[in-house]
Amino acid sequence: MPESRIAIVGGGQAGGRVALSLRERGYGGGITIIGDEPHPPYERPPLSKGIITGADALDSLYLEPEDIWNARDIEVRSGVAATAIRLPERLLELGDGGTLRFDDLVIATGARARRLPLGEGGPDISYLRTQADALSLREKLRPGRRLVIVGAGVIGLELASSARAMNVEVDVVETAPCVMARQVGPAVSRVLQRRHEEAGTRFHLGQSVVGARWVEAGVVLSTSKGTSLEGDVVVVAIGVVPNDDLARRAGIACQDGVIVDGAGRSSAPHVWAVGDVARHPVSWSPTTVRQETWRHADRHARAVAAALLGESTKYSEVPGFWSDQFGSRLQGEGVCSGDEVFIDQAGGGPVWVYHADGRVTGCIALDNPKLATIARKAIGRGATVDPAVLLAPGADLKRLLR
């Protein structure tokens, strides 16, 4: 009788972490990772920072060196795409013409950069999602060149920070009236915008890109407010789209991602989904959510690995992110919306606390990792808070949230 086999489609952080966690938990069957990129599993956060600037070596991206995958008897098949799932036979069809039998299948296909219809044939419209994208951009960004970034979210601002460190001229176009509107409140947004502007970045907020034309010197973008921006390079950073096509073609329930339960199970028996591609229930939202952060990819992968081995588990992690910009670290914990209170912590960086109905719902900390950790624990246990106490001069947030 053949050994049991878990197949993982997706060679990113979530897929790789599922495989490693299975071995750590004692699974002795076969594990195969199928990834369409020509690399072993790697993490994406450094792509917009150290990989772009050249400060980080490519080897630092990888979850583990190649010899570790071999030592743990995890087969990594890079540069091969999964093209179809044959559910009745529990069989994967592969782009190289082969097939792979599985007992359980984990869909960890992640997400792809959302496209903006700008005449995709143009040579200077770029996206930043893969290792290849980052290396290509690194070659294009030279001192004195002009970069136009469409989108002022996490990736857009991190790229702006990296480009200014490389003495590249930067303009950022954003449809929202403030930067990082999905991640932070308006007060934090203003602080971030000011830091970028002090470093020389120019913002064009509250306007969208409506056209592009190619000229000898590069690309000219036209915005909804009539602004014309010329760049040698244009990078579109307007979010991502989940890679749920493989699941959809197999008839697995999807809605902006693969729909799973609290353990990661999809609507199809023996098929699971993890990371950016998974839409799952959480305790802090009345609707299912899809998360796109390093922490989620790591924690969700560990939870799904446990569930695959029969452990009773229900994933419920406090959402969180971090972003490195201009030498500072911004950390977000929980849901950062609702009433916002600024607390200037003596001996640490500034903190913004979000609360609703007497409970702490979120926290943004700038260069204050200790308070970010305390806040995450407080949010996780549903800590209550008196807004009047938070607003009092000299409020000790560490004491209030413990």
UniProtKB/TrEMBL annotation:
Coiled coil segments of this chain: none
Keyword Zinc-finger applies: no
Annotated Reductase C-terminal domain residues: 321-401
Domain FAD/NAD(P)-binding: 5-297
Keywords: FAD, Flavoprotein, Oxidoreductase
Cofactor dependence: FAD
GO molecular function: oxidoreductase activity, acting on NAD(P)H
One of the record's GO cellular component terms: cytoplasm
Domain of life: Bacteria
PANTHER family: APOPTOSIS-INDUCING FACTOR 1, RIESKE DOMAIN-CONTAINING PROTEIN-RELATED
Protein name as catalogued: Pyridine nucleotide-disulfide oxidoreductase
